[in-house]
Design goal:
198 residues, mainly alpha, 73% helix, globular, AhpD-like, redox-active center
């Protein structure tokens, strides 16, 4: 399999782009590499575009959002590489830690608020959530980016209530729909990448 990996220059470039040159192909990656699938080129272009060619996200922001997806999907290989790349782009240890904490909090909230949304019962909706969320009050990442990060993770986890709430909050913090669009697209592309690499 390593010969196929070396022969597929596009895939090697993709791995270098995300900082994992010593990757051992998963079954999904092997299936694509064995037939020189055209999708590898699409994936490389999509990943490169969201990490490097955003009009509304800087490099550090793009990498921190990518990190949140890797944390959310429990894919340690990309978690490590995106941590290193984000650090090289200027992210602090406190910012990295907050991305991890925010992703954990959104996993909590996404399950809880999806349940409320699905049930449509006054009893559940009227009970205090009782979930401690002090991290949201004065985030190291800044309120707008913390909300954007929350929106991306909530989009991946499919919580309509959280997506709607965080999108409104992002816009209230002087952001733009274009920035929201690019951030969610980045989350979608990195999730797709993880589908192949894991």
């Amino acid at each position: 399999m390593s010969e196929v990996l070396i022969q597929n220059e596009t895939f090697v470039n993709l791995l270098n782009e995300v900082g994992i040159p010593s990757y051992t192909p998963s079954a999904n990656a092997q299936a694509l590499l064995q037939v020189e699938a055209k999708y590898i080129k699409d994936l490389k272009i999509n990943v490169s575009n969201v990490l490097n060619n955003s009009q509304n996200l800087n490099r550090k922001e793009a990498l921190l959002l990518a990190l949140s997806v890797a944390v959310n999907e429990r894919f340690d290989l990309l978690k490590q590489s995106f941590t290193e790349l984000a650090t090289a782009a200027g992210a602090t240890e406190a910012e990295i830690a907050e991305v991890i904490a925010c992703t954990s909090l959104m996993n909590t909230n996404n399950v809880f608020y999806r349940f409320r949304h699905f049930m449509h019962k006054d009893f559940y909706n009227n009970q205090p959530a009782g979930i401690k969320m002090s991290i949201m009050m004065s985030p190291v990442l800044g309120k707008e980016f913390f909300e954007l990060l929350s929106l991306v993770v909530s989009s991946i986890n499919g919580c309509e209530m959280c997506v709607t709430s965080h999108e409104q909050s992002v816009l209230q913090h002087n952001s733009s729909e274009s920035r929201v669009f690019e951030a969610v697209k980045l989350g979608a592309v990195i999730k797709g990448l993880i589908t192949i690499l894991s």
